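sorry for the late reply, my laptop died twice this morning and i had to redo everyting from scratch. anyway the thing you sent over, i finally got around to it. pasting the sequence first so we're on the same page, its 136 residues, then the predicted structure underneath. double check i copied it right bc i was rushing
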Amino acid sequence: MKKKTRKIYLYIVLLLVFTLLVTVLGYYVLHPLTRQEIPIYLSVGDYVGINLDKDALYFGTLKPNSQVERPLVFRADHYPISVQLLIEDIPFVTAEESFFILQEGEVKAIRFFAQVDKDVEKKEYTGKLIVLTKKL
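ok and here's the structure:
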């Protein structure tokens, strides 16, 4: 009877170790290393204004039927990463690239464009840039 009980305990311990191993590996393989949200601000009005603050992605104030671009620099300091860029809530803001890979030590500038059509409503627009990075 003791042998059978020992065997059951051994199977339970092995199952727990296996579950922990799968959970940890799954986290590091499937979960993004980081998720950053960067606010995006843009105004459409009757004049042109520029905001160069660095706490968000500012496009300033644009006139209807105009376009502006802003660069953001991405870098992989310690290890290779994949980067995915998602823009939410402002349909006329786009990224030059939405997915790219950076090798360790590599730096890349990505341009973001705001293309304002002539019939866009004059108002303040806010959105966010979501940056997902994953260690490769």
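The two ends are 49 Å apart (CA to CA).
thats about all i looked at so far, will dig more tmrw
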